[in-house]
Amino acid sequence: MNESAGLRFRRLHRPQPRGLFSSRRFFAAAPTGRSWCCRLKEPPMMKGCWEPNLKLREAQRLFEDQLVGPESIANIGDVLFSGTADGKIVKLVGRRIHTVTRFGKLPCGSREDEPTCGRPLGIRVGPNGTLFVADAYLGLFEVNPTTGEATRLVNGGQIVAGRKLSFINDVAVTQDGKKVYFTDSSSRWQRRDYMHLIMEATPDGRVLEYNTETKELTVVMEDLRFPNGIQLLPDEESVLVAETTMARIRRVHVAGLNKGGMDTFMDNLPGFPDNIRPSSTGGYWVAMSAVRPNPGFSMLDFLSQRPWIKKFIFKLFSQDILMKFVPRYSLVAELHDGGVCTRSFHDPNGLVAAYISEVHEHDGNLYLGSFRSPYIAKLDLSKV
């Protein structure tokens, strides 16, 4: 594995916000010294575009019990690539799975092993046919999909502008391959503690830019609450960022006149967004593995305004037990400019496609990634 030499860092200087999303107005300091999340808005009614249906149950499972946690998916032609929970980058050809590379070292499979095994999350194809991969622990990599040669561009765990890169999550690459944007979901919590991050909702996530020519690393936005999926807009002057614990999608301006600014692309989603990927109609697919039912009860909404209960719960239950308290409900939505929902596909109780993390569209099909399920789900759009 090669290392990218000469990495330099700079912070993007921008004026402090004074508007609606100023930290002075938006956050309240907790007695512990950390910031607790403001109250979520009442969830939108599940009607209109959000009307529940069973369309995701038309999906078929691929490679069932042959891989675990294919979080993100990319394709070169008809060949699919993904990163799995055992630290591998895999190539899916026909019905066969081939290992391209792994970034970490064995053993793998336990919570304790994950930081050294590695956990590849977001994956993209660059303009030269290489793969750009965000590993939650080990860093940002560029991979030759044929030879498996991997070059580390950014080291995970390093201190950047006074904060640790603790949870590198998703990645996006410009068309010329000169800039790579990625999310660091938290400087406090690692991926293996993601339920703590969801429950605590601290504003310690960031969006960073890596320049592949100058090797310069730049913080372009900070103080985000669980920034997760990231997607470049066509003009490449801004990126969409899923702010998971706030159930919204932000637009971060990374170039042009508004560089350094941020606004909201869509607020108050009926679920908690994960990865964002382009759709063939010019919109964006957003995956949600948990919803905020209205009518109904959302545990995460309930806890968002009761930090003392969160602390109590974590003293009583492990992260795996807590996952069982979050009802499974898979929701895929196609969004367009202006934050307009144009269609959505549902699987109440996640009977066919559970714990979805990404929707990758290719050749008339949606390939559904998952952060913990032992399969990829494939939905033929002509059937829904």
UniProtKB/TrEMBL annotation:
| Keyword presence, Glycoprotein | yes
Coiled-coil region list: none
Q: How does it sit in the membrane?
A: Single-pass type II membrane protein
Q: What is this protein called?
A: Adipocyte plasma membrane-associated protein
| Record key words, sorted | Glycoprotein, Membrane, Signal-anchor, Transmembrane, Transmembrane helix
Highest taxon, organism lineage:
Eukaryota
What the record says about family reads: Belongs to the strictosidine synthase family.
Which compartments does it reside in?
Answer: Membrane
Mind telling me which SUPFAM superfamilies this protein's record contains? Answer: Calcium-dependent phosphotriesterase (SSF63829)
Q: Name one GO cellular component term.
A: membrane
Q: Which GO terms describe its molecular function?
A: arylesterase activity
> Is Metal-binding one of the keywords UniProt gives this record?
no
Query: From which source organism is this entry?
Result: Oreochromis aureus
Q: Which InterPro entries does the UniProt record give?
A: 6-blade_b-propeller_TolB-like, Strictosidine_synth_cons-reg
**Domain spans labelled Strictosidine synthase conserved region:** 169-254
